User: Which sequence fits this backbone?
């Protein structure tokens, strides 16, 4: 069976600066893939390039193909892309208040997604389907509320309902739980998982939270400096990291070692477009040598490998706790629903 998403040689640049370099990635049918890395690594730019939502002065080249779409997404006209976004390809953004229309009731916004793409005909039928979708994300009776009347977790669930409204082949989530407290985060993750599983949709999940990746994803790609530096099955990468950057990320996430100082990666992420030639991590790596001034080759297969001149030993890592601690059932603790009519007291406890 062919991949749902195939990205080859994706490069994103602005003027004379290259922000994302030669990214290759695939997502198979029903597969859940995580994309991790520090802020400024190029994760969100990669997602926006796939969706065709880059700013006007930022340009992408390479190839992005989506199953069921008979044309290349890179360079496609906006008219053609608008037929794909929201139908075959959908996204849950990090900040729901900027993703939602503050002047429309949330039920109408969910219904609009179906009406625009013609998956349901008739406004009455679309509103009924929207109400059913909101019920499924545990938002009973909020269809007539406005976004400002909902809590942060409730707004994010509305965005999830909109993204899943047309049963997309691929759902992209860009830090969908960053601004939420832990209990609400677990609920939103659970709803995303239920939604993609029920529709047999593929998932590309962007996050800083390694425990979330270990819980949600089957395979992970590690980005730094606009490049994919390591990829593979989650448990393999998290228990036996080969790239020195992946090793540093995992060590810095090991919060259970109270008997020693928490390791950190020295230095800071360079500004976008100002990463060094060769290995993009070499200016922060304790193992760097003159050889690292040349671009390291990819070692392994297309879906599992790394790009490092001095990889960590292939004999297990001292930081398997990220995987172990994440193997907890995702909570489905419910938030209180907002009232069906506008009210100044409609803020829920996790706002």
Assistant:
């Amino acid at each position: 069976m062919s991949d749902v998403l195939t990205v080859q040689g994706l490069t994103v640049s602005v003027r004379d600066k290259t922000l994302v370099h030669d990214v290759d990635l695939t997502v198979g049918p029903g597969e859940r893939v995580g994309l991790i890395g520090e802020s400024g690594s190029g994760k969100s730019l990669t997602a926006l390039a796939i969706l065709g939502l880059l700013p006007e002065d930022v340009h992408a080249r390479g190839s992005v193909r989506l199953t069921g779409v008979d044309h290349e997404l890179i360079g496609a006209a906006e008219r053609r892309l608008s037929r794909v976004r929201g139908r075959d390809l959908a996204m849950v953004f990090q900040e729901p208040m900027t993703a939602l229309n503050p002047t429309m009731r949330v039920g109408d916004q969910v219904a609009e997604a179906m009406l625009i793409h013609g998956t349901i005909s008739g406004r009455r039928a679309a509103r009924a389907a929207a109400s059913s979708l909101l019920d499924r994300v545990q938002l009973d009776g909020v269809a007539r509320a406005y976004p400002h009347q909902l809590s942060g977790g409730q707004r994010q669930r509305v965005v999830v309902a909109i993204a899943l409204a047309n049963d997309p082949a691929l759902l992209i989530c860009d830090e969908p739980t960053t601004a939420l407290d832990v209990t609400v985060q677990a609920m939103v993750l659970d709803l995303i998982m239920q939604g993609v599983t029920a529709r047999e949709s593929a998932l590309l999940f962007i996050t800083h939270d390694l425990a979330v990746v270990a819980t949600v994803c089957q395979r992970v790609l590690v980005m730094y400096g606009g490049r994919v530096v390591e990829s593979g099955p989650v448990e393999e990468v998290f228990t036996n990291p080969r790239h020195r950057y992946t090793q540093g990320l995992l060590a810095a996430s090991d919060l259970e070692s109270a008997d020693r100082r928490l390791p950190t990666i020295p230095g800071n992420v360079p500004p976008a477009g100002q990463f060094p030639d060769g290995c993009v991590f070499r200016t922060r790596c304790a193992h760097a040598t003159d050889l690292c001034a040349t671009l390291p080759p990819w070692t392994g297969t297309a879906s599992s490998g790394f790009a490092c001149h001095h990889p960590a030993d292939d004999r297990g890592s001292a930081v398997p706790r990220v995987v172990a601690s994440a193997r907890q059932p995702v909570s489905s603790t419910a938030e209180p629903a907002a009232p069906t009519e506008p009210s100044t007291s409609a803020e829920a406890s996790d706002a």
Notes: The radius of gyration is 21 Å. The longest helix spans residues 182-199. Residues 3 and 28 are 4 Å apart (CA to CA).
